[in-house]
Write a structure and sequence with these properties.
With 366 residues, this protein is of the alpha+beta class. The protein is built from 10 helices and 15 strands. It folds into 2 domains: 12-166, PurM-like, N-terminal domain (60s Ribosomal Protein L30, Chain: A, 2-Layer Sandwich); 170-361, PurM-like C-terminal domain (Phosphoribosyl-aminoimidazole Synthetase, Chain A, domain 2). Helix 3 packs parallel to helix 4. This is Phosphoribosylformylglycinamidine cyclo-ligase.
């Protein structure tokens, strides 16, 4: 008897069913610019409107959600991890002032379970709709023998566009600009290897209920990443605020200081004042379990700040008020300076970028 693909562990029928289950969710992200629908070899997106730009710049980003997927798998809860993926990918696009156009996703799994794949993709589609991004294609790959039957990983890539004259970068930043901190929804999708290590070392399971977590530990950890794209695009489009918004920084791997340093010009520095906020309960609970200080995790977790905006002092309060209308608590956390300063204890640049210098000072608020 000849060997078959099914005997090797790959179920193409399950893959087809997964596509059928996700089609309606994906289609809801499609506008008139998307051609061909779901199922083609390549997603098609009409960019004729780019002729209206003087100098259109395409922006692209790719990412995953790291080991947060291990918690989703342990709890068999897969409907929020897609929002994490979109947050990690699309919110990097808006950092340069770009409007996202379209996204593709990739799911690798040990065994295709159609309802599970559909849940993941539905979460991606909902978040794409929230950010104005068309989900134009994707791939689900079954890897038996490499991944366990309940194992999977997700990744994605997106493309956006910005007019060259509207590009946000460090060249716009000036001494006297203020740094606004935009509140995170929790851990977002960074530092979960440390989270899992802390819990494993103390024998705490994801279904355990701990008062400091407000219920089951895993559910608190799966709080989806806050999406900043739509509110920030509205801010950029505001006649009063838009021209005063000079730079954005997405607080992901590396923490607050390293990511802010990347969008500051060389020679400038910022002291981020810890007393302007109190890290959310999840961070305090995890550090209490580990016996570490909040300060020792600043290079790993966002500690309650998911995005930073560098704006002119004159438009700071208007920006804070506008973001509050979108449900994002925002506050002034520091000021850009350029006079001489001993930068020995500052974080200077990151990820290959020779940017400014940042350090966190003071003590966190109660």
């Amino acid at each position: 008897m000849a060997d078959s693909y099914a005997e090797a562990g790959v179920d193409t029928a399950a893959g087809d069913l997964a596509v059928e289950l996700m089609k309606s969710a994906v289609a809801e992200t499609h506008g008139p610019n998307v051609l061909g629908g779901v199922g083609g070899f390549a997603g098609l997106y009409d960019v004729s409107f780019l002729k209206e730009y003087d100098r259109p710049l395409l922006a692209t980003s790719t990412d995953g959600v790291g080991t947060k997927v291990a918690i989703a798998q342990a709890l068999d809860k897969h409907d929020t991890i897609g929002q994490d993926l979109v947050g990690m990918v699309v919110d990097d696009i808006v950092v340069v002032g770009a409007r996202p156009l379209f996204m593709t996703d990739y799911i690798a799994c040990g065994k295709v379970v159609p309802s599970r794949i559909a849940d993941i993709v539905a979460g991606i589609a909902r978040a794409c709709a929230d950010t104005g991004t068309a989900l134009v294609g994707g791939e689900t790959a079954e890897h038996p023998g490499l991944l366990g039957p309940d194992d999977y990983d997700v990744a994605g890539a997106a493309v956006g566009v910005v007019e060259a004259k509207d590009l946000l970068d460090s060249s716009r930043v000036r001494s006297g600009d203020v740094v606004l901190a935009l509140e995170s929804s929790g851990l977002h999708s960074n530092g979960f290897s440390l989270v899992r290590h802390i819990l494993a070392q103390r024998g705490i399971g994801y279904t355990d209920r701990l008062e400091d977590f407000g219920g089951p530990v895993g559910e608190a950890l799966l709080e989806p990443t806050r999406l900043y794209t739509a509110p920030l695009l509205r801010l950029l489009g505001d006649d009063e605020i838009g021209t005063g918004l000079h730079a954005l920084s997405h607080v992901t791997g590396g923490g607050i200081a390293a990511n802010l340093a990347r969008v500051l010009p060389e020679g400038s520095w910022v002291e981020v004042d810890r007393s302007t906020w109190s890290p959310p309960t999840v961070f305090q609970a995890l550090t209490a379990l580990s016996g570490a200080s909040l300060e020792s995790t600043e290079g790993t977790w966002n500690l309650g700040i998911g995005m930073l905006a560098v704006v002119t002092a004159g438009c700071a309060e208007a920006a804070i008020d506008r973001l509050a209308e979108d449900g994002i608590r925002t506050w002034i956390a520091g000021e850009v300076r350029d006079e001489f300063q001993d930068l020995t204890e500052f974080e200077q640049g990151a990820k290959g970028v020779n940017g400014g210098a940042v350090r966190l000072v003071g003590s966190y608020a109660d």
